[in-house]
Amino acid sequence: MTPILENIPLAPHSTFRLGGLARYFAEAGSPAAIPELVAFAQKKNLPIHVLGEGSNTIFSDAAINKFFLKLGFDAIREIRKDQTEVVIEIEAGVSWDKAVAWSVERGYQGIETLSGIPGTVGAAPIQNIGAYGQEFANVAVEIRAYDIESSSPIVLRPKDCEFGYRISVFKKSGRGRYIITGVTIRLSLLPPAIPAYPGIKEKLASEGISSPSLQDIRRIILATRAEKLPDPRKYPNVGSFFENPLISQAQAEKLKRNYPNLPIFPASGGKAKVSAGWLIDACGLKEKDFDHLHVDKRNALVLVNDGSATFQTVIETAQEIIKSVRTKFGIELEIEPDLVS
């Protein structure tokens, strides 16, 4: 029987260091423990919230009447390998960056530019995490989950997951339905490509590296992230607070004429991806102090909790930033972290 705790502080479970009390909390030591915990939550008529590393979650500072479930299983298994690729099973409780490091050490490429992304493997498909030209959907083979509606384990294929830019079925019609217990991914044994992103190519070139190893790419990516993002252990934050918006090509071309320095990248579906950080900075909001919050001085996408922010001030600050960008550029920003109340 898995112990079920009551009135557990949630602030330690978020890198934003904000949160009230969880009505119930439990840590499942294996997928087999999940059905009994789901049954308990259903008996209490409470929604279930799965906890990862809390790097993309901000909790209300009030008591939250939900059942919070942490996944404590964290194995990585190589299940098939040939001369060109390898297939790996990873349990949901594994730290994502641990999985990347494990793969890079063995010469498996496909997720090396996702180095340093915080969170657990179980959260990766939900957000369809991505960076520097790679994303989870590119390597996904299957996602294993517990289906709360049918009270049974289920396996989903990539086509079932409706992957898009920082989106998946787990954030849309399947939100709250699935508890992801593990993923299977396919990685390549072929030499890695140089990430075609400004800053990465230049750093490799400055070190005289024309054919980088996976270790080279991972090292450069980690260094780049450290330069751009404040350490949440010192400065409580959840990384990017807003998603980079997707706009039409026509709107992108118009904006580029008016703002030649605006970073714009190609996206799927004939869309263009715009730098949300640049938009916020151009509104004069970088380093701006709000009520116990401030916009980071290095990265305008990051909101930092100065230590005594409230859930309400977070919402109000986000709304003010969204309004500023909408007024100046006609673009609607979307909040990236999960706001749980």
TrEMBL record:
Compartments, as annotated in UniProt: Cytoplasm
Domain of life from the UniProt record: Bacteria
One BP term from GO: cell wall organization
Biological or metabolic pathway of the protein: Cell wall biogenesis; peptidoglycan biosynthesis
Catalyzed reactions: UDP-N-acetyl-alpha-D-muramate + NADP(+) = UDP-N-acetyl-3-O-(1-carboxyvinyl)-alpha-D-glucosamine + NADPH + H(+)
Location of the FAD-binding PCMH-type domain: 17-190
Enzyme active site: R166, S240, E336
UniProt cross-references to Gene3D superfamilies, sorted A to Z: 3.30.465.10, UDP-N-acetylenolpyruvoylglucosamine reductase, C-terminal domain (3.90.78.10), Uridine Diphospho-n-acetylenolpyruvylglucosamine Reductase, domain 2 (3.30.43.10)
GO cellular component: cytosol
InterPro entries the record matches: FAD-bd_PCMH, FAD-bd_PCMH-like_sf, FAD-bd_PCMH_sub1, FAD-bd_PCMH_sub2, MurB, MurB_C, MurB_C_sf, Oxid_FAD_bind_N
Keywords for the protein's UniProt record, in alphabetical order: Cell cycle, Cell division, Cell shape, Cell wall biogenesis/degradation, Cytoplasm, FAD, Flavoprotein, NADP, Oxidoreductase, Peptidoglycan synthesis
EC class name: oxidoreductase
EC number(s) reported in the record: 1.3.1.98
Obligatory cofactor(s): FAD
GO molecular function, one term: UDP-N-acetylmuramate dehydrogenase activity
Signal peptide: none
PANTHER family: UDP-N-ACETYLENOLPYRUVOYLGLUCOSAMINE REDUCTASE
Function: Cell wall formation.
Family: Belongs to the MurB family.
Protein's recorded name: UDP-N-acetylenolpyruvoylglucosamine reductase
Protein's organism: Candidatus Jorgensenbacteria bacterium GW2011_GWA1_48_11
Lineage, top ranks: Bacteria, Candidatus Joergenseniibacteriota
